[in-house]
Amino acid sequence: MSETGEAVVPELSDEERRAFVADATAWLDDHADRRASDDTTAGPTASGEGREIALMASAGDIDAEREQIALAKAWRARVFDAGFGWMGGPVEYGGAGRHPDLDHLYRSIEAQYDVPDQRAWNVTWEMVAPAVSAHGSHELKQRFLRPFYRGELLCSQLLSEPEAGSDLAGLRTRAVRDGDEWVVNGQKVWSSYAHLADIGQLMTRTDPEVPKHQGLSMFLLPLESAGVERRPLRQMNGNAEFNEIFLTDVRVPHRNMVGDPGGGWRAVLTTLMSERRAVGSGSGATIDPVDVIAGLAQHLDRTGEPVVRQRLAALHTDRRLLEWLGMRLAEDVAAGNELGPQGSIMKLLANGRNIRLGELAGHLLGEAMVADTGAWNTFAWSDFLCSAPGLRIAGGTDEIQHNILGERVLGLPREPGRS
Ligand SMILES: Cc1cc2nc3c(=O)[nH]c(=O)nc-3n(C[C@H](O)[C@H](O)[C@H](O)COP(=O)(O)OP(=O)(O)OC[C@H]3O[C@@H](n4cnc5c(N)ncnc54)[C@H](O)[C@@H]3O)c2cc1C
Fold this sequence. Notes:
The structure is a single chain. This protein is an alpha+beta fold. Helix content is 43%, strand content 12%. It is built from 11 helices and 8 strands. Strands 1-4-5-8 form a 4-stranded mixed sheet. A 4-stranded antiparallel sheet has the order 2-3-7-6, with no helix packed on it. It is globular. The chain binds flavin-adenine dinucleotide. Flavin-adenine dinucleotide is lined by residues 156-160, 165-166, 190-192, 390, 393-397, 399-400, 403, 415.
């Protein structure tokens, strides 16, 4: 315990870190190809070739996405079976029972290899699994956590509704108990990857008679269930990652409830805190956008310009701050401490960083950013610029993060009219 009463996880020893890096590298060398030297997380070089920036994981059309998911599932199963899938997880639920930092370490090593993109699992690993781990029954954890981390099950969040986004607790999708099952009716919207996912993290109102936060319950809903209709929505970046979901007399077993009836708000808070941290840390991204833009400035021979240098320095500062904040939060998570408003700070900082990245790309590229000529690292920035505003909304808008910080950190009065 620390002086503040919070649990503390001992630091990963250098010896354990070195041994792990050697093991993981040896396994990856045997099972995957290393990326070319100018194609690693260190980012593209001034050579004008290398990986391009991409904020979202979408592969474009639905068939390509399905193929990408199938490849990711097969790869992830091999990783898990080799013992690298869930290092920090408890052994009884399929984890390796080792130091939680090793999960992050493994992903950073894996990013140096040409392996299938697994970013679609960020929702599963960073948002749904933490809620199941913290609030689910022993039986629920045994049934779901291993398949989540082995990549067998992909999750999507069925939280937002047409009339319930920022005010999530105002959601109206109803679940009514019928013996060992609940019958669900309602509509969800903005469910990312739901058209590809196996499981929906479903928020419902199970008791309309009590104050709104107390009448909510969370379920893990198999999305192939009868009565679930998924309709993809196209976005301004050209992808169709979102879905509307219509739920008509859908039956979900009581044993799929996360927590107790009426305990959904506590469970979803765990998800939202983890989500803010995940968006802020850019977790799952295998390429650092600051490296990419620095490579672009070098490639265009613009690094001598004072304004470009200043903007690159500001972006580098953002990167360091995000890294350090991320490390602090990872320690809190590993220690089992409840996440507070730190996730909001990370999310706001990352959103600002994304906007600054897009502005610098525009400054460097000018019209080359909007015309798809096939030239390296040009049009890809257009997709980045069109995707960045979405992250200011997903998982709670910038305004909501400011409200959280105002109330919980600065001690300002609560918003009028909020319960
Ligand atoms: C990229 C992306 C991915 C998403 N993925 C998912 C997903 O997988 N699953 C899911 O369930 N949802 C998802 N969402 C939905 C997202 O959570 C909601 O869009 C978000 O919570 C905002 O809700 P809303 O769209 O209803 O806007 P509203 O809540 O109607 O807000 C409209 C505007 O009013 C402002 N506002 C509202 N209340 C306040 C207040 N109290 N104080 C100050 N300003 C306020 C907001 O900041 C916003 O600018 C996603 C959204 C995006 C953009």
